[in-house]
């Protein structure tokens, strides 16, 4: 009965998200020719999915995970959490303005004060549902599943940025596409992987790591997301985006370190 309820909730979230994403495209005030240009911009942003898909293929093979883990989690990450995040962020911004007013400081920091909490929460909700439905019990599987959900959400967010741009100023559509592609190296796929593994490590009895690592990964994900959305991230040294590049480097370091640790831990458990 419990699994059936979880499945119904997951299917409901997916159904609403499916309509939400596709109807948003249908409502655009653009011509058919412009839809083709918009599709090209989607494909441009999707270039990041090529190396990402190869990475997930290697991880599934390395950790002996089912082949359907990545595509299932990616599709769920694309359709399920996006609409929840949109409404959650909007509500968060309205609460901030209600409490603190409409000053320039709040407007500049509103994304950073809402998105990390709202988006990391709704993405983990999707991960949690998948963990229950697939009966996942291994840290490596949780980590890969979390990253895949995050990647799906990341691509849906890229699409939403392009859709919003198309509805406002179509002439800048490719500039937005390149901007989203440049930030793809360290984004939601990393944050969700860290949060998922962190929460699993804190609460699961089958964890490979101590709880302090779990808390560290969750806090690190929220802080990385927070700083990325703040005006601090706009700081440049000449033409170099020093803050953004530093966040990217640190995020990738965490991911590669975790993959290495997971592999070493799993090898030790197999030998033991």
Automatic annotation (TrEMBL):
Pfam families in alphabetical order: PrsW-protease (PF13367)
Lineage: Bacteria, Bacillati, Bacillota, Bacilli, Lactobacillales
Residues annotated as transmembrane: 36-57, 69-88, 108-131, 138-155, 175-200, 212-228, 240-263
UniProt keyword annotations, A-Z: Hydrolase, Membrane, Metalloprotease, Protease, Transmembrane, Transmembrane helix
Organism: Enterococcus alishanensis
GO MF: metallopeptidase activity
InterPro entries: PrsW
Domain of life: Bacteria
Descriptive protein name: PrsW family intramembrane metalloprotease
């Amino acid at each position: 009965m419990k699994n059936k309820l979880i499945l119904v909730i997951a299917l409901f979230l997916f159904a609403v998200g499916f309509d939400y994403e596709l109807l948003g495209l249908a409502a655009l005030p653009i011509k058919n020719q412009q839809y083709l240009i918009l599709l090209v911009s989607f494909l441009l942003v999707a270039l990041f999915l090529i190396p990402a898909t190869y990475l997930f293929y290697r991880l599934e093979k390395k950790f002996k995970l089912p082949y359907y883990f990545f595509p299932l989690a990616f599709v769920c990450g694309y359709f399920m959490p996006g609409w929840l995040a949109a409404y959650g962020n909007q509500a968060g911004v309205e609460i901030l303005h209600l409490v603190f007013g409409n000053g320039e400081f709040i407007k500049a920091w509103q994304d950073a004060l809402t998105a990390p909490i709202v988006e990391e929460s709704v993405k983990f909700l999707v991960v949690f549902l998948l963990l229950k439905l697939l009966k996942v019990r291994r840290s490596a599987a949780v980590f890969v599943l979390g990253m895949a959900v995050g990647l799906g959400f990341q691509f849906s967010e890229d699409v939403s940025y392009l859709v919003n741009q198309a509805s406002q100023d179509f002439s800048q559509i490719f500039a937005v596409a390149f901007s989203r592609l440049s930030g793809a190296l360290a984004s939601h796929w990393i944050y969700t992987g860290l949060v998922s593994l962190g929460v699993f490590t804190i609460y699961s009895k089958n964890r490979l790591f101590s709880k302090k690592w779990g808390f560290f990964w969750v806090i690190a994900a929220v802080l990385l997301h927070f700083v990325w959305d703040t005006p601090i991230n706009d700081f440049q040294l000449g033409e170099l985006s020093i803050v953004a590049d530093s966040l990217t480097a640190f995020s990738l370091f965490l991911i590669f370190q975790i993959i290495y640790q997971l592999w070493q831990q799993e090898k030790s458990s197999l030998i033991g």
